[in-house]
Amino acid sequence: xxxxxxxxxxxxxxxxxxxxxxxxxxxxxxxxxxxxxxxxxxxxxxxxxxxxxxxxxxxxxxxxxxxxxxxxxxxxxxxxxxxxxxxxxxxxxxxxxxxxxxxxxxxxxxxxxxxxxxxxxxxxxxxxxxxxxxxxxxxxxxxxxxxxxxxxxxxxxxxxxxxxxxxxxxxxxxxxxxxxxxxxxxxxxxxxxxxxxxxxxxxxxxxxxxxxxxxxxxxxxxxxxxxxxxxxxxxxxxxxxxxxxxxxxxxxxxxxxxxxxxxxxxxxxxxxxxxxxxxxxxxxxxxxxxxxxxxxxxxxxxxxxxxxxxxxxxxxxxxxxxxxxxxxx
Amino acid sequence: xxxxxxxxxxxxxxxxxxxxxxxxxxxxxxxxxxxxxxxxxxxxxxxxxxxxxxxxxxxxxxxxxxxxxxxxxxxxxxxxxxxxxxxxxxxxxxxxxxxxxxxxxxxxxxxxxxxxxxxxxxxxxxxxxxxxxxxxxxxxxxxxxxxxxxxxxxxxxxxxxxxxxxxxxxxxxxxxxxxxxxxxxxxxxxxxxxxxxxxxxxxxxxxxxxxxxxxxxxxxxxxxxxxxxxxxxxxxxxxxxxxxxxxxxxxxxxxxxxxxxxxxxxxxxxxxxxxxxxxxxxxxxxxxxxxxxxxxxxxxxxxxxxxxxxxxxxxxxxxxxxxxxxxxxxxxxxxxxxxxxxxxxxxxxxxxxxxxxxxxxxxxxxxxxxxxxxxxxxxxxxxxxxxxxxxxxxxxxxxxxxxxxxxxxxxxxxxxxxxxxxxxxxxxxxxxxxxxxxxxxxxxxxxxxxxxxxxxxxxxxxxxxxxxxxxxxxxxxxxxxxxxxxxxxxxxxxxxxxxxxxxxxxxxxxxxxxxxxxxxxxxxxxxxxxxxxxxxxxxx
Lengths: 329, 540
What we know:
The complex is a heterodimer of chains A (329) and B (540). Chain A contains 4 helices and 19 strands. Chain A starts with 10 loop residues before the first helix and ends with a helix. Chain B folds into 3 domains: 168 residues, Rossmann fold (3-Layer(aba) Sandwich); 221 residues, no CATH class; 113 residues, Rossmann fold (3-Layer(aba) Sandwich). Chain B is built from 12 helices and 25 strands. In chain B, the strands form 6 sheets. In chain B, strands 6, 9, 12, 13, 14, 15 and 19 form a 7-stranded mixed β-sheet that branches. In chain B, strands 10-5-16-17-18 form a 5-stranded mixed β-sheet, with no helix packed on it. In chain B, strand 24, helix 11 and strand 25 form a beta-alpha-beta unit. In chain B, helix 1 crosses helix 3, helix 5 packs across helix 7 and helix 7 runs antiparallel to helix 8. The interface between A and B is large, with 54 and 61 residues.
């Protein structure tokens, strides 16, 4: 068996670099010579000397990416740690195009365990595998941000959906003990699907796309803190499946909302460049999807959800992004 | 089916209330007592001990009935309609119709408390509900860590298994997306030095971390001999690192070899067989949070944040009997044996152990949690009946002392059971708190929870667990005696004692929480310590 080379950036590295990066994000060397916003001295601490939040769009076709919640100033955002380049960088997941190349095509399974896919013999599906293939992007998730590990009571719920695109999409896990594949998300589901992620864990699973094209999926992380308060953050994942679809087609694809959800905050609008403390509702969570929502009411039984929601702006993180953006220009 | 039935129950209740309500004034009983309704008898007992003579307490689920499946009666719903205060355990313990009956019929101004949920916010120990026990094992991967020996990002490591010792065959493999295996090593076709063990070698890039399954065909102790070679680049001669030997206790109690060879048992959390380029040898890297503090760390090992390095000779990896499964029929798995053969597996992914994030609801089997329940009860009683505050505080204080004593009683009894005999085999997976609080091991059960029919394979697995762990007794809840329980059949088949352990409900002999803990403590000692002859614990 061979685990190939481009995998130099693998979980071990990620784990360690992640810890270092996040530790330094919190306590580390300031990379801005002068804080531009005198109201917010915290800005000085946000970006580590050796690991930057990379602003702007990117396309990743091979290598390791993890998404996960990150906690700053009592508010959550979701960031992607992109370990595909020579140096790891942090990105806003919604600015990322995840390319699933034609090399990712596999014979679709027709066995009993995969009857849910209803594949026809001879069909081929695009696969981001649970176990690493160096030719193909490797997409996982984690709850290993040091601040997150300190704050979370037990773990977080990763909520996936809606997932939209020209074909069907499945996320499932192989436990390697002959169990049927454990289905975690399915684009055909009517509601978003919840996956529990214990605190301080890192997981990879299989993503399967039945047809080439542009796909977009909403991902949220929701968690209860040790002090009983709730946090959540949302983002979009954008997939370019196959070699033909262009990154622009994927970037401009909007997520069609079936109905106005209670946490309608994530839009496919362009990044909130230079946005400050103000901003209107629609800009919420553009850029780094950063709305942190303190849920004041309990989620009721029988699907009735009564939410008294106080929206905090993801002000700090958006400022940080804006600042970094300005810095780059 | 349940909805319409409940509806009709509600309608009937409304009628009953309309007729019977004429004579009642307000929610209090005629002598001014509070009316309290609980779901289970255990909760009712805890409440009575705090509420004393200031309340009339009734329970929805009668003693001897299982709260997981009991549907409330019309009469018990009438109690709900008059209650000032309702206590359920919940966390999905009770049958949902019980909770719906509470929600639908409790007066608007009465207080409804999910006591386990409240207690878990105020100091109770909570355990995740294990959805698949066979995935409740060590998560063992492979890793390349550290810098040194001239390695760069372009370097590769060959990790080779060149020999195993053990009672059966051993192997390791990846399960790919659509279920076919990729073999890392397999002893079943031998180890061929002639081709440099090419078939039993995994190529790992610099900095790699990968997870795979580890499989063993028979119970016993296994030694897996691992060598590693570093190839700095494509042209360089491979440099051999120091060999290492991994020790596994498969399907047997690992404590025997652990004490004989001064090893620590590694049986949960995450660990990686690590090619350490800094110390140029093989180590086991374990998540810092689950790393044993009493074992010395490996000297000079690579540093990976969040992980701690240990020498292989200080550890034994446990592959518990609950990981036993059967070789599947598909041709790709023939290296493991014939379809249907026994096979013990450490899984390549463990997320399925706990994918819904629920909490095990049986908190009260840890007496400290019962104490947390009592504190919640005290506070809620005071909230509803502030005039009784002093009374409730005194009552609770007195009862908490009794709980402390019974906790000590349980500890004392368990401490008399030899370590390797502290194994629990029960009907359902409902004793995780008992095991966690008092140092027992959940060795097995017939089915994870009530309502799941055990398969033939489940039964075979249980039998094999009892035999390989040399278990002497299994534990049945009293209400299940004389009901042709599958556990009784397994006990007969394996010739072990059938003992009694109280779980969710009381019976005629034991109808208080304190008595229940004592009865369980006595029974555990009598049955597990191995002194008693065959037990006959049929309750009358």
